[in-house]
Amino acid sequence: MAPGATSRGGNTFWTKFERKGLETRIDHRSYEAQGIEQIPTVHEGPLVQQMEKRGIRTQKGDLNRWIKATNRLIASIKKKLKSLVEWIAAVKEELAKSKEPDLADLLIQYHDMRNAGAWSQNEENEVFRLGGPRMGARRAFGCQKAKIGNLKKFVDAFHFLKENQIFTVEELERQTHELSTAVDDLVAQSKANTARIKQLDNMITFAEHIRRIQPIIDQMNAIHWKGSREKFRAAHQNDIDLYYTSQRILNEKHGVKKIDISGWKKEQAELRKKEEERAAQYKLFREKLNEMLNVKYCVDIARKMDRKDPEKKRGNDLTL
């Protein structure tokens, strides 16, 4: 099918959707051809789907569940990376226009401003005057809790910058780019692994057809009388056709010279284990990205407050 083309069935559905005022579209191209950053799921077939509906777990069902969960994780990471990259570009442009404090300075400003906003002496006096000691105690507890939360955000962001040797926006940009590249590499590896798992699954299916039907083929070949042989062949025509079709697909499509079902299943198990390890790596990437976004959050608050109070002293003695 040519790039951008759709099947006749797809066009028929498009027409029906349009008549109903729906924007849903069917595209028969692969995710890669559509430019969608997703790992494609495997075709389950009616038998697997029926087993899954009855609560019987299958290898294909488990693989598809993992693929769907991984795709959600990839989409979340990609969305956050896009947000972070756009933010860094905006911050760099702003820093180029005027002398702004560095990341450490902005984090200190964030902590000081948030705590100052959490509770002031004037607020304390007013609350006690209007609500009495009990309301004042509740308000004091809430503000203390807010201060602890602010401190945790600040400490987490500060430690992240220090541990990763991030002193400037440029360094944060560089590490964001490295993280994005690492995610892309991991997605590419997952796609290649999943494609191989699907290929092995296909090979195993056809090999098992051959193994199951082989006794029928042997029995037919042992019949020397032409009439009896033709009668036997007619009685088992569907299985015999499937046997030779399976042989042709294994030889021509997959280049199989020797059937090795146990070896293929062993390779599948090893590939699935690698994907489990990659799933853990995706989660580590997401954790690092969340820490970067925490830095972004703190810096944004400080920048916003700094614009409101341009006379505020920006310098401090803190070094990373």
Write a concise synopsis of the structure shown.
The chain has 320 residues and is mainly α. It is built from ten helices and no strands. It starts with 7 loop residues before the first helix and ends in a 12-residue tail after the last helix.
Q: Care to describe what's here?
A:
Helix content is 78%, strand content 0%. It is mainly α. The chain has a domain at 80-94 and 101-117 and 155-308. The longest helix has 53 residues, at 169-221. The two termini are 57 Å apart.
Q: Give the overall shape, derived from the CA principal axes.
A: elongated
Mean pLDDT: 75
Series of secondary-structure elements, N-terminal to C-terminal: HHHHHHHHHH
Q: Indicate the low-confidence ranges by residue numbers.
A: 1-5, 117-144, 311-320
Report the radius of gyration as a whole number of Å.
31 Å
The helix count comes to 10
Structural class estimated from helices and strands: mainly alpha
Largest sheet: number of strands, sense, barrel closure: none
Give the percentage of residues in beta strands.
Answer: under 5%
Query: How far from one another are the termini?
Result: 57 Å
Number of strands: 0
Measured as a percent range, the helix fraction is: over 70%
